[in-house]
């Protein structure tokens, strides 16, 4: 492989890298844009079809200056160098292309931006580097190295102080000699931190962490989901409900993302009387859908189900909500159980909901609303539903993870 080479970038691929077409196939160059002529060098790891961008010789007119000083080194964002309009068209096209490749013919609405105020949840990594220096930050692009950070401009202002809090919490814990993953969630009552990786905590250490919690606006600190200290319960508002977050439960990455997905789901469910909300999490759909419809919600995370049930019983003006802990991969709702519902909403993790889609395909449920964060598993599951007699009435792509190649979508299917 030549030390440096000149490449012409054809387009941006579905991971956000520039793609050059050469005689030997495709070559992927992170941070390059379609139409650009670039100078490239070997990529770290010397992967045969990857290169490192050394210099942009002819820049695309759509190239813009990234706004974050860590961009290009930190692995958090793949795209800050591309104008909003082509970026948005590319993101919508990711959905259009995946559907076409799967042979699914349906309308795809314009992309809905759902970055809103920014990310409300981050995971930072803490490691001891050379000369015993503590590093707290994100993983570097394409490696496990940690890029220490002191700011991240894509965060919701509700996370102000979160990075400082992570450094402060990491300092006493890293002395135990284990790498740490520090998940921080912005709640209405302060920062909720769950640390993974440290050993058991001594009383002296908990006293020190309590001081840090007071100094850094922490609502709660947990270790592997076990309570270390709570100054005030970490609460978020969902519709008219107040939900106390269980440690480590899933939460949509941005408030705008949650509201957009829930608004689209509510629109598709507006005539529903009885809804099954599958993969419900702490209830961002159930607690809003129950304004009009009876809801039964299922998720394998018992903590999330408990939080949803508690919020449902303490919120007035909602139709009945029942919530049940159930593993829907191993024990999907069967066609006989699905008879209780005129509408099913499902929002699985990235693996999708193949087992549940198979049972839905054999059911008579008139309306299915599919929410997905992975277009590949969505198309797989949608094909199962289509083969079972459903037709897709429309798909809306949602951009909650701006600056990344991730895209969400909401689809309505009818039989
Ligand atoms: C993408 S999240 C959606 C949660 C919720 N709808 C929301 O918007 O916050 C996927 C959810 O699936 C749940 N989950 C993961 N595996 C599961 C399984 N095998 N059975 C049931 N639920 C599962 C997770 O606990 C998580 O709450």
Account of the protein in words:
The protein is α/β, with parallel strands linked by helices and 415 residues long. It folds into three domains: 5-63, Nucleic acid-binding proteins (OB fold (Dihydrolipoamide Acetyltransferase, E2P), Beta Barrel); 89-115 and 251-414, Vaccinia Virus protein VP39 (Rossmann fold, 3-Layer(aba) Sandwich); 121-235, OB fold (Dihydrolipoamide Acetyltransferase, E2P) (Beta Barrel), CATH 2.40.50.1070. Helix content is 24%, strand content 30%. It contains nine helices and 23 strands. It has helices spanning 84-101, 162-174, 203-215, 255-268, 286-289, 302-313, 335-338, 354-361, 375-387; strands at residues 5-8, 11-12, 18-22, 25-29, 37-42, 51-58, 112-113, 121-128, 134-139, 146-148, 180-187, 190-196, 218-223, 226-230, 235-238, 241-244, 274-278, 294-299, 321-325, 343-346, 367-372, 391-399, 408-414. An eight-stranded mixed sheet has the order 7-22-23-21-20-17-18-19, with helices on both faces. The longest helix is centred in the N-terminal third of the chain and has 18 residues, at 84-101. The radius of gyration is 23 Å and the shape is flat. The chain starts with a strand and ends with a strand. The structure holds S-adenosylmethionine. Residues 250-252, 279-281, 284-285, 299-301, 304, 327-329, 347-349, 373 line the site of S-adenosylmethionine (SAM).
